[in-house]
Amino acid sequence: MTLQWRKLFSNRILDRGRDYWKKDWVYAPSYSELPAGIHCRVGKPGQSYDVTIDFSDDWSEIKWMDCDCPYAAEGYNCKHEAACLYATELFIEGMQAIQEPLTSELPASDRKSGRKRSLKRSTALAENMSTIFLILARFLHRLTLTRSFGSGSGIIRP
Fold it and tell me: What GO molecular function terms would the record report (predicted)?
C-alpha cells in the first residue's frame, strides 16, 4: 500500500517541490502518530512557510494539507507541501508498513487454529519489520546526516 500523493499536484509544482527538497529547504519535520500527521517548515532561507499534513490513521491517504504561503491561501496545493511530502516519503512508507500487520485479517479457515494464526501473524510481522528497518535506515541516512558538527543545518544526500 503506497500513498499516491503525487496525483494531488501539477507536474510543475512537483518539480518545484522536489527542487526545494533537494536544496535542503525542508526544515525540522516533526511527526505525530495519533492523529497521524506531519509538520515541516519549508522554503528559501529567510522566506519559509509552515506546512501541516494530516493523514488517515493508517497513513494510506491525506485527509488535509495546509501551508501558510500565498499560493496555498488561494486554494491550491503548493510546492512547499510537495517538498514536505518528498522529504518524509520514507517515513510515511514505514508508518504504513507498521500499520499493515495490525489491520490485516487472516482468512476464516486460519482462525480455527490459534497456533497457525499466531505463526502466520508472527511471520508477517517479522517480514514487515525487516521492511520497516530498511525503510527507516534509508530515511535516517537521507534526513539526519549533517555536514559537520556545528556548521549549520545542512543534510548530506547520497
Answer: zinc ion binding
